[in-house]
Specification:
This protein has 400 residues and is mostly helical. Helices cover 47% and strands 4% of the residues. A hairpin with a 4-residue loop joins strand 1 (4-6) and strand 2 (11-14). Helix 6 runs antiparallel to helix 8 (220-229) and helix 6 (165-186) packs across helix 14 (342-365). The radius of gyration is 24 Å and the shape is globular.
Length: 400
């Protein structure tokens, strides 16, 4: 069976590049040939004489419940794996929301804001989704080859005094995270998954939970790198956990600028600029612990005369847990085809991996600039960024 996906023009794009317009009498192109077709007429349901609108087909009504049903199943599986999730969310609410109310960065931003249900669903489903994410992370860590430079520097790490070793480990981990984070923005295929996290238009106590499980696999290369370099799994795992926890706090809606710390450690202001959908802020502030790497590689952006106002991405993202999990997978095709065509799938996988490496190399070696240039694979500039709403009318400057 040919795997097909609808493109922006309403066409179905097949696995072999065959397109068919989903309209009666529309053209279908196959290779250099053009043909038209007309599907057989369908029997229309008889109108209801007692109603101005005919009832929706049963299949349509059932389809509307598929995504909510799958979301509830994921949340139920998560609670079965870790019932502590039910306590984590209230604890974060109690710890963060009072500061958001006392020191709001965006006045008028309410706790019950748009897309809150989506972010809470991501939070509740995280334990079950992380199971799939860990499996993908192992594969990514192996094929990333990050363990090779780790093995090369292992003799040097062994010479470092134990007192200094944790500091060196933090610096190496942060540098590795900087690069994989940068690639997740500038490599088109990786951006598919990372864009789910950046699609939130409101930063607050719960928005940091919005993640695709496969996007979490970007932590795998730094993890494999440090393990191969001689750092313990406990130390490396602790760094990954700290990075996740601090990330939740960095999304908080607080107005603290903390200017003396701007070039020392990352702050909420630093990360808010990373999420800003404003032209000057694109491709900036990738570090998760130390701004040092953004300063070194030319992606540091902390202006003194303005603050971030608008967040989000310049592309469409569906709302809801299941649609957002499915969105990055569009066009990938049926994974079971590897069973039917193992050798062909291996060849395609090899070519795909090579394309990813080429995009990573292009991102790594391009001139150090925040602004995307023509031909750059960065997906931030798909359409002009939004402008800040007038004071008192939007989420960035609403009334209290």
């Amino acid at each position: 069976m040919v795997d097909r996906n609808r493109d922006a023009n309403g066409e179905w794009e097949g696995e072999w590049g065959i397109g068919i317009v989903n309209r009666v009498g529309g053209p279908a192109r196959q290779g250099g040939m053009t043909m038209t077709f007309s599907p057989p007429p369908r029997a229309e349901p008889a109108p209801d004489p007692t109603s101005d609108r005919a009832p929706a087909p049963r299949s349509g009504r059932l389809r509307r419940w598929v995504a909510p049903g799958l979301a509830l199943a994921l949340i139920g599986a998560s609670l079965a794996l870790d019932v502590g999730t039910l306590f984590v969310i209230p604890v974060l609410f109690v710890l963060i929301v009072p500061f958001e109310k006392l020191f709001p960065r965006h006045r008028g931003q309410k706790v019950r804001r748009p897309e809150l249900r989506t972010d809470l669903s991501h939070a509740l489903a995280a334990p079950a989704l992380n199971v799939a994410g860990i499996a993908v992370a192992i594969v990514v860590g192996l094929i990333s080859l990050a363990w090779i430079p780790g093995l090369l520097i292992r003799p040097l790490v062994a010479m470092i005094p134990p007192v200094v070793l944790p500091l060196v480990g933090i610096a190496l981990f942060d540098m590795a995270i900087y690069w994989v984070h940068r690639w997740s923005h500038e490599v088109p295929f990786l951006w598919r998954f990372h864009s789910v996290h950046h699609s939130t238009r409101t930063l607050d106590w719960v928005s940091g939970f919005r993640n695709h499980p496969f996007d979490g696999a970007i932590v795998a290369p730094p993890f494999f790198f440090l393990i191969a370099a001689g750092f313990s799994a406990q130390f490396t795992g602790a760094l990954a956990v700290i990075q996740i926890i601090t990330g939740l706090f960095l999304h908080a809606n607080v107005r603290w600028r903390l200017r003396p710390l701007h070039r020392v450690v990352i702050t909420p202001e630093f990360h808010h600029w990373h999420h800003a959908d404003e032209a000057d802020a694109h491709n900036s502030n990738y570090s998760v612990f130390l701004p040092l790497w953004d300063l070194v590689f030319g992606t540091y952006y902390m202006p003194r005369n303005k603050r971030p106002l608008v967040y989000g991405i310049g592309e469409d993202m569906p709302d809801g847990l299941v649609p957002q999990l499915k969105h990055p997978l569009r066009g990938i095709g049926n994974p079971l085809r590897v069973v039917r065509h193992p050798f062909r799938s291996v060849r395609r996988g090899w070519r795909f991996t090579g394309a990813i490496y080429r995009d990573v190399w292009a991102s790594t070696t391009r001139p150090r600039t925040r602004q995307p240039v023509p031909g750059e694979p960065c997906r931030w500039a798909m359409r002009p960024p939004q402008t800040a709403p007038p004071a008192g009318t939007g989420r960035a400057g609403g009334r209290a």
